[in-house]
Design brief:
The complex is a heterodimer of chains A (about 290) and B (about 180). With about 290 residues, chain A is an alpha+beta fold. Chain A contains four helices and twelve strands, in the order αααβββββββαβββββ. A six-stranded antiparallel beta barrel of chain A has the order 1-2-5-4-3-12. Chain A has a six-stranded antiparallel β-barrel with strand order 6-7-8-11-10-9. Chain B is built from six helices and no strands. In chain B, helix 2 crosses helix 6. The chains are: A alpha+beta (about 290), B mainly alpha (about 180).
Chain lengths: ~290, ~180
């Protein structure tokens, strides 16, 4: 064997040293929430531009395959879309009238709903996960754009996840379908609280997430009811749609119910998301 | 002035790690089969592990792990431990490795990925009372091993030729010294 190094450390010895360092890192991150520090900043400037580029190319390829529609298809699509526009325009006028009435009544009741009025910033998904075991992804917005840890991520129709780590121009998001995720939520219709937690097994089998600890003594909650984030959640803003109840059964203790939810977001084809630039205010001084 | 071989080697490893990391996080997740993406970083750490062996395997394993930790959210240091262990195990097979045979590399990559699956299951999932080992074995671990081995049939060669090129340039500079 050629050994070029003047000082040689035996592999076993170095292994012990490095593994100790690793465990120290784990302990440090557990205690202080350390997640790379200066290394993270360096990694940010090396990887994020390249990931953005790859994402751009990837999207280009998908879009160009989608572009390849025949003229007949386009004409047919155009016709049906025109019809749809007409229908929707009438609907919209009706809705606007109702909306005005709603606003008027809300003013009377002094109730202004916040949902939909949050400041958001759009972001691209530039990398998906580091493992098949976890449902996390990276977006191309970071502290430079005002993104902070624990900010909520939504995508058009509903809740996607929460920011768990943030660098200068990237942020790591843990989605609600991740095995580690649990969200304090409530049934929209009855305001009953429950816990929504991701489960890899359930997700792989049937694309669903778990619902537990639902107290529903009067059996009011039915399949198909909307589930939203709860106002007592410590990290999630209230009233964001998560999904619809698809199964519900009584627990063995006869007090609570559990079941499954079909999420509204299509997690398999997530490309653009919105970051809500507002943290949940819970009155805790430490910001948790 | 010629670049020192050791520096050349370090630059080469950094570059190959960057490329494989991008493949791991931004390219292959777009080509998932049944919700499973191949584990490209395991291929890198395992192949460098048994080809180069020794301390390089450990440092590269740990560095790749830290890189993944930074882009993964929770438990900073978890991947560092797992990939360090994988690098260490593979460096043990350095003596057995002869370049012309694909059987040992494929076997080692497959086993490394399986060990990776077992470690993640054992450290994270088992601890959180997910006891349905059979499910995770057949739906996550084994599909990932199969896909990773298939991908490694291609991704093995860039590292193999890089390593040969580095060894050659090592010898050349040695001759100059004599």
């Amino acid at each position: 064997m050629r050994q070029r190094n003047k000082i040689t450390i035996p592999t076993g010895g170095l292994f012990l040293i490095l593994i100790t360092v690793c465990f120290m890192l784990l302990a440090l991150s557990y205690v202080t929430g350390f997640s790379g520090g200066p290394v993270q900043t360096v990694a940010n400037y090396i990887f994020v531009p390249m990931q953005k580029g790859l994402d751009f190319i990837g999207n280009g390829i998908t879009e160009s395959t989608e572009d390849a529609k025949t003229k007949e298809e386009l004409l047919a699509e155009n016709e049906s879309l025109t019809k749809q526009v007409e229908e929707l325009t009438t609907q919209l006028t009706n809705m606007q009238l109702q909306q005005e009435e709603l606003e008027r009544l809300e003013k009377l009741h002094d109730l202004a709903t916040d949902y939909g009025q949050y400041d958001t910033v759009g972001a691209h998904v530039i990398a998906k996960g580091t493992s098949n075991w976890f449902n996390t992804f990276t977006i191309d917005k970071g502290t430079n754009d005002g993104v902070k840890v624990n900010m909520n991520i939504i995508s058009g129709s509903g809740l996607v996840g929460i920011v768990t780590e943030v660098g200068p121009s990237y942020a790591v998001v843990r989605s609600v379908i991740d095995d580690n995720s649990s969200v304090s939520s409530m049934i929209l219709a009855t305001s009953d609280n429950c816990i929504v937690s991701g489960d890899l097994e359930l997700m792989t089998d049937s694309n669903m997430i778990e619902l537990t600890d639902l107290e529903d003594p009067d059996n009011e909650v039915e399949v198909g009811t909307a589930v939203v984030t709860s106002n007592i959640s410590s990290k999630f803003l209230p009233g964001i749609l998560i999904g619809y109840v698809s199964e519900l059964k009584e627990d063995a203790n006869n007090l609570t119910k559990s079941g499954t939810i079909t999420p509204v977001v299509d997690f398999k084809h997530l490309q653009e998301v919105l970051v809500i630039l507002e943290l949940k205010e819970t009155g805790n001084s430490d910001g948790n | 002035m010629e670049i020192k071989p050791i520096i050349k080697r370090i630059i080469a490893y950094v570059l190959v790690t960057v490329v494989y990391f991008l493949l791991h996080t931004s390219v292959f997740p777009n080509f998932q089969l049944g919700g499973i993406a191949p584990n490209v970083m395991v291929i890198l750490v395992s192949v460098i592990g048994f080809m180069r062996g020794g301390n390089t395997a450990l440092v590269l394993g740990m560095a790749s792990g830290i890189l993944l930790d930074m882009f993964s959210g929770s438990y900073f240091g978890m991947y560092a431990v797992i990939y360090l262990v994988i690098g260490f195990i593979n460096s043990g097979f350095h003596q057995l490795f002869f370049g012309d045979d694909m059987k040992l590399p494929l076997f080692l990559i497959a086993s490394s990925d399986f060990v990776y699956g077992l470690l993640v299951y054992g450290c994270i999932y088992f601890m959180r009372a997910r006891y349905d080992f059979g499910f995770y074995l057949f739906h996550v671990m084994i599909p990932e091993v199969v896909y990773t081995v298939l991908v490694s049939l291609v991704l093995y060669f860039p590292i193999y030729y890089l390593e040969q090129w580095l060894n050659k340039s090592d010898k050349r500079s040695e001759r100059k010294l004599v």
